[in-house]
Write a structure and sequence with these properties.
Blueprint: H1 3-42, H2 47-62, H3 65-75, H4 85-110, H5 114-122, H6 127-157, H7 169-180, H8 183-220
Amino acid sequence: MAYADIAAFFPILLKGAVVTVQITLGALLLSTVLGLLLALMKRSPLTPVSALAGTFINVIRGLPIIVQLFYIYFVIPELGIDLSAFQASIIGLGIAYSAYQAENFRAGIEAVDSGQIEAAKSIGMKSALIMRRVVLPQAIRIALPPYGNTAVMILKDSSLASTITVAEMTRAGQLIAASTFQNTTVYTMVALMYLALSLPLIFGVNRLERFFARSRQGADQ
């Protein structure tokens, strides 16, 4: 692995890494918003609303992410909605992972002690206020570990955007390897750069978990 090759390839891969981060953040935000909405819908007392959310979650989880990306990028434009490959990758990954986020949030919400909800009702709090003040803060803490894992999975699966020509890090590596035949150097660099992006996410989630754990211990004392 020549240092000259590394120096030549790194700036190109770094540009791809910037696109990878942009896709990850966009998809994470979209999946979080949609996932929370789906989780609340699934817990709705209205059967049609709950059934709709459950059906959507099952369908999305049953489809490969790459198929969803292809559908959004190649099929949606035929319906008159023009999307760039970058936009399609964010929307595709965001929708795909919203189903997993929904299950993360739902599990967190259902893990909250029902006694606290009853206590809040007994002092006259409305359902929306109970959800915002009592349930969601605790549910978020409970859902944080799987949420962090999902964020790492989105980062890694952002590489699938290369299949619809997005110039993210994997795509940049493919182009460099195809033109230089330095497969070992290029893909080792790509792997290390993905690891470098993933580790801060993992450490950040671990710090948040410890913070919430200390906060809870302080509240219990």
